[in-house]
Amino acid sequence: xAGAYILGIESSxxxxxxxxxxxxxRVVSNVIFSQIAAHQPYGGVVPELASREHLKAIxxxxxxxxxxxxxxxxxxxxxxxxxxxxxxxxxxVGIGYxxxxxxxxxxxxxxxNHLEGHIHAVLLxxxxxxxxxxxxxxxALVVSGxxxxxxxxxxxxxxxxxxxxxxTRDDAAGEAFDKVAKLLALGxxxxxxxxxxxxxGDPTAVKFPPAQLKHRDRKDKSDGTEGPRFDFSYSGIKxxxxxxxxxxxxxxxxxxxxxxxxxxxxxxxxxxxxxCDRKTLDxxxxxxxxxxxxxxxKTLAAxxxxxxxxxxxxxxxxxxxELRQRFEQDxxxxxxxxxxxxxxxxxxxxxxxxxxxxxxLLAREFAAMDFSAEAGMALG
Length: 380
Ligand code: KG4
Ligand code: ZN
Known about the structure:
- By secondary structure, the chain is α/β, with parallel strands linked by helices.
- It folds into two domains: 143 residues, ATPase, nucleotide binding domain (Nucleotidyltransferase, domain 5), CATH 3.30.420; 199 residues, ATPase, nucleotide binding domain (Nucleotidyltransferase, domain 5, 2-Layer Sandwich).
- 44% of the residues lie in helices and 17% in strands.
- The strands form two sheets. A five-stranded mixed beta sheet has the order 3-2-1-4-5, sandwiched between helices. A five-stranded mixed beta sheet has the order 8-7-6-9-10, with helices on both faces.
- A hairpin with a 3-residue loop joins strand 2 and strand 3.
- The chain is globular and about 65 Å long.
- The chain binds 5'-O-[(R)-(carboxyoxy)(hydroxy)phosphoryl]adenosine and zinc ion.
- The site of 5'-O-[(R)-(carboxyoxy)(hydroxy)phosphoryl]adenosine has 19 residues, from helix 5 and helix 6.
């Protein structure tokens, strides 16, 4: 098959996104409508609200993705949509619309796992830079608001296979960023603001004990066929931050900040800095340092144990500056090449869905018309 233009649609969480990607190697358009403003007053994503916002946005977002790409409904070669994991009601909006379009236009429809999409965001980024050489196996850390997963990925011709070798036992890393930000009245989502505030604090000021993983994961196979696992846990550090806030009497200053920031429509970094004392900045920087160190250390231990030849780091938290620097530094010391998507392709987007669909189009792996959303969809 010659090259193909795929229209990707993504609606698994709080971003309504559509994109046209050429042959898994070139982003022709990439439209992302973020619902952050709608969810911000609640300090997190409200599922019903997300579905309603997707319903409002999906048609204009898809239209804009086609227009930006200079394409029409008729000119695209295939459609791709996120099947899961994610919020069921949110996923259904994208799936329903993609199915209707595919049926009306008589075009092939491809169902994509959101986590596979995050992995293909890295490949898409590298192909755009004309880098097509990747050594296998690839170890991919998918780290976002909903996931902290390690996958060993292999490619045989058009077929990609994934083996999960680690995941979080409780909170995802991005969830920890979001919950700590909420606790400290720093708004939603927490990752970007903690990232920026951290450079203003002392990351060695507060010591957090390393995460303890005492019990084997219930999801492990007990027949001994599974190799070593590299699991994560981030609910402990969140509780440690809460305890620190209580022991150091930070409630009053948090409430003062909440009030002050609520009066500003779109607070900028300077506004946050004005309302954060040294203790808060040190706490935030130390939290980020502890979380990043744990992610990097465990991922590199997994890479050594699995003889990974290449490392991918992807998902919303992969936008974090300290995480990128630490991975670049520490992986280089081990002679391990590490790749990230650009920041717009790190957080949720539809280009990664269209890119992951391309090998499936070549393999003619099309979705059955009766497929539905899979909120807890696993990869591999
Ligand atoms: O991949 P994503 O857009 O959605 C999910 O699939 O979850 O990731 C969103 C998550 C949020 O938890 C957000 O706080 C986090 O990624 N995030 C960051 C940064 N930018 C986004 N975390 C740390 N540093 C950042 N710069
Ligand atoms: Zn995601």
